[in-house]
């Protein structure tokens, strides 16, 4: 969440050891790894904020040249699709093992879009979605059931993206996929 949501300094507990002075309530407690330590989870109601107040966080080796331009395109598209306000990119260029961040950059969606033909990108996505709808709806049963969509792209900026669509899921992956989808919806229902 953007920095306006945080005060910058860690919140100190009251003399009683709670955080009620900052409108936090004890949500749950559980035993830590050692039997004498308890872990308390404090919860507060935050004002509702729109997705534009959130940032997408990315890590990559660099943002140089054509590979960097392609990465920025992907970062913009992912953030624009979910409505994030910005993208924070950590780069590891110059790091001995490529694990340590050497530079941090923040881009607004507008910053990233400035060097892109966004109309063309949205038109391409629209054409892809129309293809999926046309193929799935032309089956006579309204496209009901499982479908597998494969998106493939050769390496390199400007290489074409190809969509492959087939009815059903591969037998090796459908149990795992179904379980993951079921778990996601169970989590969403519990959050409501």
> Unreliable stretches, pLDDT < 50, 5 or more residues?
1-6
Cα(first) to Cα(last) distance is 21 Å
Residues in helices, as a percent range: 25-40%
Report the structural category.
Answer: alpha+beta
Helical region count? 4
Q: Work out the radius of gyration.
A: 23 Å
How many strand segments? Answer: 7
Ordered list of secondary-structure elements with their pairings:
Layout: E1 25-31, E2 38-43, E3 55-60, H1 65-82, E4 86-91, E5 103-108, H2 109-113, H3 118-137, E6 147-153, E7 161-167, H4 174-191
Parallel strand pairs: 3-4
Antiparallel strand pairs: 1-2, 4-5, 6-7
Summarize the structure in words.
The protein is α+β, with helices and mostly antiparallel strands. Helix content is 32%, strand content 23%. It has four helices and seven strands. The strands form three sheets. A three-stranded mixed beta sheet has the order 3-4-5. The chain has a two-stranded antiparallel sheet with strand order 1-2. A two-stranded antiparallel ribbon has the order 6-7. The longest helix has 20 residues. It is extended, with a radius of gyration of 23 Å. The two termini are 21 Å apart. The relative contact order is 0.08.
Brief account:
The chain has helices spanning 65-82, 109-113, 118-137, 174-191; strands spanning 25-31, 38-43, 55-60, 86-91, 103-108, 147-153, 161-167. It is α+β, with helices and mostly antiparallel strands. Residues 1-6 have low confidence and may be disordered.
Short key terms for the protein model shown above:
disordered N terminus; three-stranded mixed sheet; alpha+beta; 192 residues; two-stranded antiparallel ribbon
